[in-house]
Amino acid sequence: MIATLIPGPALTFGRDTFRCAIGRSGVTQAKREGDGATPAGLLPLRRVFYRADRVARPAAPVPVEPLAPSDGWCDDPRDAAYNRFVTLPYAGHHEELWRTDHLYDMIGVLGWNDAPPEADRGSAIFLHVAAPDFTPTEGCIALEPAALRSVLAAGLTAIRVPLGG
């Protein structure tokens, strides 16, 4: 099933609408690394990671894997592993997926700039847990934990992100 981002911002999925956070720069068709924007397009859900020490395994229609402290994501456009999962320590610039806050307790990896990755087109576009005050993200889409768990269990396969969403 496909969810759709709507103004608010919110995510519609079936008959439900969930408040969400998106990138601090809004939605763009011209996504660039570090611009803080959420990319417009149809973003397929590739896989889900979760913190097994904090939350129960979420049900999802894609592979679900527990995170480890050594898990990261390369966001260095000059690196061969750009926009890919990496094992830490890692020499290239990267994001740690094992965080002290709760934002990455559940992470849905969204298909953006990954087939194959192109330098500077954006990386680490995830569906993850929102901050309690729904602070804008760096380009990801974020939901409160119960909503994230609900859409994953209900069969989320992609998110449609229109311009103006």
What does the model show?
With 165 residues, the chain is mainly beta. The protein has one domain. It has one helix and 14 strands. Strand 2 and strand 3 form a beta hairpin. It is globular, with a radius of gyration of 15 Å.
List descriptors:
165 residues, mainly beta, eight-stranded mixed beta barrel, three-stranded antiparallel β-sheet
Low-confidence stretches: none
Report the C-alpha radius of gyration, rounded. 15 Å
Number of domains: 1
**Individual helix count:** 1
Proportion of residues in β-strands: 35-45%
List the secondary-structure elements in sequence, H or E.
EEEEEEEEEEEEEHE
DSSP summary, beta strand count: 14
**Backbone shape:** globular
Indicate the structural class. mainly beta
Helix share, percent: under 10%
Query: How far do the termini sit from each other?
Result: 18 Å
Q: What's the story with the biggest beta sheet?
A: 8 strands, mixed, barrel
Strand and helix map with partners:
Blueprint: E1 2-6, E2 10-13, E3 16-21, E4 27-28, E5 38-39, E6 41-50, E7 64-66, E8 71-74, E9 85-87, E10 94-96, E11 106-110, E12 126-129, E13 141-143, H1 145-153, E14 158-161
Parallel strand pairs: 1-14, 4-5, 6-7, 12-13
Antiparallel strand pairs: 1-2, 2-3, 3-13, 6-11, 6-14, 8-9, 8-10, 11-12
Short description:
With 165 residues, the protein is mostly beta strands.
